[in-house]
């Protein structure tokens, strides 16, 4: 077996998994102000202000990253119990999408998160009454949210809320409004994970959520077969692709989903994963480049067709330097 490993060219010749810029999706946090600002819990990641937005998208295009996923940092004054800012056709996400599309057209894909947590005063992904998350009432708002995003020019809506039945309702709502070509990338196997902390800090929902959790609608980390049930339901309702979230702690789920359904399957290397690798690299305990590349290859090996990662721009530069 070692004969194949003797030389670098030989190792490349027989490699089973390969990573390219086309595998990357870059999550961007956008803020409604001119200047960008750093996120302390995500070193190297900024909330992108309007002054830097188009330059950041241009960077993604230059690196041949095929799509960016946009998440809003909503001002607290706009957050309400009913999260109605999510359905405002002139909210931060919709304005951002229109601005990018005006400058870049179809040069890059735009993915918009469909969930209420960036807009709710309680930090939950759904409407809430007496401490209970309301499934069907939430879906009605999510449908409106998806429509205004599609109207603005979004290419892919990505429901991350984990309400039951929302994919079918969103598909019908989009089709009824003439958006048959808009893709749905479903967060189908999303777990109630402890790895989301820096993300909630980045979008400003951590303080709203407080000591609350999302265990009544996101999956328990103990569950595996249940993930396949979730994915099957979402595909039956019309999802074009599915996602597993988080990434590294759930490689077994990723592998089972891809092997079972053989549909476009994505994985999210979430904020906690990014923060751990970055912190260890800053301490000198890990080599950043080799460790990050290994982690992304692990997703590809497990079956991922694409990876949402905050390392996307760095990895794009590394891959470009290898050309």
Walk me through this protein's architecture.
The protein has a single domain (20-322), classed as TIM Barrel, CATH 3.20.20. With 323 residues, it is α/β, with parallel strands linked by helices. Helix 3 (92-104) packs parallel to helix 4 (135-152), helix 5 (166-176) packs parallel to helix 8 and helix 9 (251-261) runs parallel beside helix 11 (288-302). An 8-stranded parallel β-barrel has the order 1-4-5-8-9-10-11-12, surrounded by 9 helices. A two-stranded antiparallel sheet has the order 6-7. The protein has 12 helices and 12 strands.
Task: Note the gap between the termini.
Answer: 28 Å
The radius of gyration computed from the alpha-carbon positions, rounded to a whole number of angstroms, is 19 Å
Q: What spatial form do the alpha-carbon principal axes imply?
A: globular
Strand order of the largest sheet: 1-4-5-8-9-10-11-12
Tally of discrete structural domains: 1
Number of helices: 12
> What is the name of the CATH architecture?
Alpha-Beta Barrel
DSSP strand (E) fraction? 15-25%
How many β-strands, per DSSP?
Answer: 12
The unreliable regions are none
The CATH first-level class comes to Alpha Beta
């Amino acid at each position: 077996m070692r004969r194949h490993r003797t030389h670098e060219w030989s190792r490349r010749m027989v490699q089973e998994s390969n990573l390219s810029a086309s595998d990357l999706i870059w999550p961007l946090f956008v803020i409604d102000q001119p200047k960008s600002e750093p996120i302390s819990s995500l070193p190297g990641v900024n909330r992108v202000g309007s002054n830097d937005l188009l330059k950041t998208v241009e960077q993604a295009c230059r690196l041949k990253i095929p799509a960016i996923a946009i998440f809003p940092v909503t001002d607290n004054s706009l957050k309400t119990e009913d999260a109605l800012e999510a359905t405002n056709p002139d909210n931060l996400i919709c304005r951002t999408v229109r601005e990018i599309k005006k400058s870049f057209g179809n040069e890059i894909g735009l993915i918009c998160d469909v969930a209420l947590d960036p807009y709710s005063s309680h930090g939950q992904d759904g409407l809430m009454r007496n401490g209970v998350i309301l499934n069907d009432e939430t879906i009605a708002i999510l449908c409106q949210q998806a429509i205004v995003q599609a109207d603005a020019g979004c290419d892919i809506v990505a429901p991350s809320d984990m309400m039951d039945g929302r994919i079918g309702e969103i598909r019908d709502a989009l089709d009824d409004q003439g958006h048959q070509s808009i893709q749905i990338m479903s967060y189908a196997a999303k777990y109630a994970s402890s790895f989301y902390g820096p993300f909630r800090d980045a979008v400003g929902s951590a303080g709203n959520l407080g000591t609350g959790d999302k265990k009544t609608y996101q999956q328990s980390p103990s569950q595996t077969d249940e993930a396949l049930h979730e994915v099957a339901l979402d595909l039956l309702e019309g999802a074009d692709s599915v996602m597993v979230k988080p990434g590294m702690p759930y490689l077994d789920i990723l592998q089972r989903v891809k092997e079972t359904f053989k549909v476009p399957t994505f994985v999210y290397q979430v904020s906690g994963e990014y923060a751990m690798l970055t912190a260890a690299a800053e301490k000198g305990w890990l080599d950043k480049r080799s460790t990050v590349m290994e982690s992304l290859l692990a997703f590809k090996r497990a079956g991922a067709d694409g990876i949402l990662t905050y390392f996307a721009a760095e990895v794009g530069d590394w891959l470009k330097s290898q050309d």
